[in-house]
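Entry 14. Structure prediction run on the chain below.
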Amino acid sequence: MPWTLTVRSGPKFERLRFTGLDEALDALEQRAEELSGSAPNEAVDVRYKEFEPAQQVAARLELAGPERLLPSVRAGIDVHGDGSTEAYVGRLRRSALEQRKGESAQEALRRTVAPEQREG
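Output returned:
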């Protein structure tokens, strides 16, 4: 199974494996929709600062593949506490993907990870 989707939500995580990029991206989109609807919408107050829901990452979905040991693709979606989503590439040094006008985070991720499938 060349593609791995890791879903982290609070203290829980699950790892799903897929043979194709399309089915991995479909599963990522479905889980992101589910998690954005159930994101906690509360501010967190630590002694010196308050973090608004839009600043909190409630869940992270990471896609890695197709190689197993050193994947050439590492990308994913962060689901914020207010239900908004943000696509990124990278693992240790994540960079946010710029969304085009009218484009969702899932569409921006698909455009970046699988560009040859969108040009047809």
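The beta strands are 3-9, 12-18, 44-46, 49-51, 57-65, 73-80, 85-89, 95-96.
Filed with the rest of this week's runs.
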